[in-house]
Amino acid sequence: MSRKGPRRPGWARQVLLVAKKDLLIEVATGEIVTTAGFFAVLVAVISSLSFFAGKDSMRDVAPGVIWVSIAFASVLALSRTWQRERDENAIRGLLVAPLSRSAIFVGKALGVGAFVTVVELIVVPVTAVLFRIDLTSFGPLLMALLFTATPGIAASGTLFGAMTIRTRARDLVLATVMLPLLSPSILAGVAGTRALFLGATAGELGDYFALLGMFGFIFVAGGLGLFESVVDG
């Protein structure tokens, strides 16, 4: 009788295994959330001191501070996430494992999305204190805007982080590529947040949610289609 080898886990299980690996490493070290969160808070504090505009600061300055802080912190988090895969050539072990490339992409993106979400949960209360934002009124819709943008940030960062893994000037290339790609999401987020602070309702913010969702869908679909050729190239 022939023996059957160990069964390959299903696709969803593969995704969870990759995401779990990154999350367990982060729980043990805390380096990504700590450094990215501290950097985002520092950007928010410096911006609040540099661009204070009196009672209009919440409307004119706070939306940009929130989204720019998260954008730069996300690039920092993405850089460190892929640095782990470069150390000791760990990416090779990940690629030779019985995992589909799409599962690796989605698992890595889920891990990055979790890191970005934690940074968002840190930045929003800090910015609310600095700019006197009433989170009881604006908090739910503001977090909804941020969470809608998170899949696009995580997916694009995962794809282009993989592209730069074999590049010498990795961090510079990642920031140079990522920030222009994220600019449509950031602009939509800033405009939507400003409209929210001016009193827009959830229905009136529908176009901004649609734009952020569309960007996220494009980046996720593009990552699923291109990730294999990127990491195997």
Helix coverage percent:
over 70%
Overall tally of structural domains: 1
Q: Radius of gyration in whole Å, from Cα? A: 19 Å
> Helical stretch count?
9
For the secondary structure, the number of strands is 0
Distance between the termini: 40 Å
Quaternary assembly? single chain
On the 0-100 scale, what is the average pLDDT? 84
- What is the approximate shape? globular
Q: How do the SSEs run, as a string of H and E?
A: HHHHHHHHH
Poorly predicted ranges: none
Report the major sheet: none
- Structural class label: mainly alpha
Strand content: under 5%
Written overview of the protein:
There is one protein chain. The chain is mainly alpha-helical and 233 residues long. It has one domain (11-232). Helices cover 82% and strands 0% of the residues. It is built from 9 helices and no strands. The protein has helices at 11-29, 31-50, 57-60, 62-86, 90-96, 101-131, 135-163, 170-197, 206-232. Helix 7 runs antiparallel to helix 8 (170-197). It is globular. The mean pLDDT is 84.
Quickly list its features.
233 residues; mainly alpha; 9 helices
Structure summarized in a few sentences:
This protein has 233 residues and is mainly α. It has helices at 11-29, 31-50, 57-60, 62-86, 90-96, 101-131, 135-163, 170-197, 206-232.
